[in-house]
């Protein structure tokens, strides 16, 4: 009975080990296929496989060659298998010890003297085998852990490399086009002096491309209106609302709240494309905001008014929103103004450098939920907020979750009100202008 038990146990261990080796062979075949087909980066087998069946792989990415760990492919699955195996070995060891103890207790003293030497020897070899296996599994497991870490580092490096190249190319093309635009614009200016146009008054140099509202201001437009802008010639132009009055004018408005006519509880796609009515309430759209700010020389102005008629503002000397690949990450500069610096409220509530989150896309820093869902808004949530200008529009004070339009440094905003009421805002507006623009 005891012997049979032992053999059964060890065969389970061997079966599990065999399965692992088979899985490794299988993954090597898959590796080769993917390398041939779709991968722009070549992944090839290097040198002879070692006796244990492990083959070295490397990635060729001129001018960079990175040695990959042998256990490159399907690392997660293999890792899991090893974990399982480890658990099996542990439980086997445990049940072996238990059964050994039990056996010792039940032993007939008379027969013990006769059989003991034999069974003892068997137990020892099997026990050694289990130990050997266990140490092998441990080694493999730690190898895989290392490999996993190396892959993580490698992935990070590849991503960076990709970005650097993309940015270089984009900057190069951008500077060429800027040069071209400059030349065409100056040619345009010369045309006013052509002989057949002598009667025409020489006007200011016409911009052929209006990148934002400040360009319209420069050519003399002074009414707050909808204008068509082309912040990046590579993409089509689009309409924006221009504020030509506040602080000298030339502002491109990104967001406006004033009556609650538009629902701001929206999806990632909605926030990406923009929604609402440019003359009333709207979100211009993350893609457009990215294009308008990618030159990285924009300042942001936020205007707020509460239901008591108090009007305050916040100015940030830089405002930039990254692209969708970087989840429209927010970059804001230093604060100046009267409303308080709610975007950099504290070490724990800081919206700078945060990704954009919507109720259906959780990129926030709150681990156990989605701030966008909880606060009914798309915003650059931290974990979660000290400011949220896309919250629900309340026409008066409200109770419950603070999911209204919120600015954490507003005078009296954090003071408890009778009945747990929270104050809301009548108007909110976000707009941008080039840093070096002088009205
Ligand atoms: C793995 O593949 C090699 C050669 O392709 C073969 O000799 C070996 O038996 C295979 N191992 C297993 C466990 O299938
Ligand atoms: C545009 O390019 C030409 C030729 O490369 C150069 O001479 C000129 O200075 C550039 N102009 C601007 C505004 O960059
Ligand atoms: C706003 O839209 C959300 C999501 O579609 C919906 O759950 C909510 O009821 C809407 N709110 C109002 C006031 O219509
Ligand atoms: C803040 O803005 C005001 C008004 O434009 C200006 O006078 C002041 O120097 C600014 N302060 C800082 C710290 O930039
Ligand atoms: Ca979260």
TrEMBL record:
<comment type="subunit">
    <text>Homotetramer; disulfide-linked.</text>
</comment>
<feature type="domain" description="Fibrinogen C-terminal">
    <location>
        <begin position="204"/>
        <end position="436"/>
    </location>
</feature>
<dbReference type="InterPro" id="IPR014716">
    <property type="entry name" value="Fibrinogen_a/b/g_C_1"/>
</dbReference>
<keyword id="KW-0964">Secreted</keyword>
<dbReference type="InterPro" id="IPR020837">
    <property type="entry name" value="Fibrinogen_CS"/>
</dbReference>
<dbReference type="InterPro" id="IPR050373">
    <property type="entry name" value="Fibrinogen_C-term_domain"/>
</dbReference>
<protein>
    <recommendedName>
        <fullName>Fibroleukin</fullName>
    </recommendedName>
</protein>
<dbReference type="GO" id="GO:0005615">
    <property type="term" value="C:extracellular space"/>
</dbReference>
<feature type="region of interest" description="Disordered">
    <location>
        <begin position="103"/>
        <end position="122"/>
    </location>
</feature>
<dbReference type="Pfam" id="PF00147">
    <property type="entry name" value="Fibrinogen_C"/>
</dbReference>
<keyword id="KW-1015">Disulfide bond</keyword>
<keyword id="KW-0732">Signal</keyword>
<feature type="coiled-coil region">
    <location>
        <begin position="130"/>
        <end position="164"/>
    </location>
</feature>
<dbReference type="InterPro" id="IPR036056">
    <property type="entry name" value="Fibrinogen-like_C"/>
</dbReference>
<dbReference type="InterPro" id="IPR002181">
    <property type="entry name" value="Fibrinogen_a/b/g_C_dom"/>
</dbReference>
<keyword id="KW-0175">Coiled coil</keyword>
<keyword id="KW-0325">Glycoprotein</keyword>
<feature type="signal peptide">
    <location>
        <begin position="1"/>
        <end position="23"/>
    </location>
</feature>
């Amino acid at each position: 009975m005891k012997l049979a038990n032992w053999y059964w146990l060890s065969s389970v261990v061997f079966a599990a080990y065999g399965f692992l080796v088979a899985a490794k062979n299988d993954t090597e075949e898959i590796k080769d296929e993917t390398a041939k087909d779709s991968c722009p980066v070549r992944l090839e087998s290097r040198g002879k496989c070692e006796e244990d069946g492990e083959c070295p792989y490397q990635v060729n990415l001129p001018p960079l060659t990175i040695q990959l760990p042998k256990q490159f492919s399907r690392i997660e699955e293999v890792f899991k298998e090893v974990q399982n195996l480890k658990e099996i070995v542990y439980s086997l060891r445990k049940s072996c010890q238990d059964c050994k103890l039990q056996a010792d207790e039940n032993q007939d003293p008379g027969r013990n003297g006769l059989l003991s030497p034999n069974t003892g020897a068997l137990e020892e070899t099997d026990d050694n085998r289990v130990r050997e296996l266990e140490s092998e599994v441990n080694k493999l497991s730690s190898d895989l852990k290392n490999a996993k870490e190396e892959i993580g580092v490698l992935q990070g490096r590849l991503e960076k490399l990709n970005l650097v190249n993309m940015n270089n190319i984009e900057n190069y093309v951008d500077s060429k086009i800027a040069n071209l635009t400059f030349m065409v614009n100056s040619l345009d200016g010369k045309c006013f002096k052509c002989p057949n146009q002598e009667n025409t008054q020489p006007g200011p140099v016409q911009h052929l491309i209006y990148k934002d509202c400040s360009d319209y201001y420069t050519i003399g437009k002074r009414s707050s209106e909808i204008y068509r802008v082309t912040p990046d010639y590579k993409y089509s132009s689009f309409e924006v609302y221009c504020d030509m009055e506040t602080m000298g004018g030339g502002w491109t408005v990104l967001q406006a709240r004033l009556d609650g006519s538009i629902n701001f509880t929206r999806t990632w796609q909605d926030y990406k494309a923009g929604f609402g009515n440019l003359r009333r309430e709207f979100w211009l759209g993350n893609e457009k905001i990215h294009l308008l700010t990618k030159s990285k020389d924009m300042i942001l102005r936020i205007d707020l008014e509460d239901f008591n008629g108090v009007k305050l503002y916040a100015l940030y000397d830089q405002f930039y929103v990254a692209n969708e690949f970087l989840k429209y990450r927010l970059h804001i500069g230093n604060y100046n103004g009267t409303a308080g610096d709610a975007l950099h409220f504290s070490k724990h509530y800081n919206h700078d450098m945060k990704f954009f989150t919507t109720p259906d896309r959780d990129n926030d820093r709150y681990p156990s939920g989605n701030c966008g869902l909880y606060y009914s808004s798309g915003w650059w949530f931290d974990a979660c907020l000290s400011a949220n200008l896309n919250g629900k529009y309340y026409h008066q004070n409200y109770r419950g979750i603070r999911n209204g339009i919120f600015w954490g440094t507003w005078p009296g905003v954090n003071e408890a009100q009778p009945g747990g009421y929270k104050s809301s805002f009548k108007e909110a507006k976000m707009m941008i202008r080039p840093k070096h623009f002088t009205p």
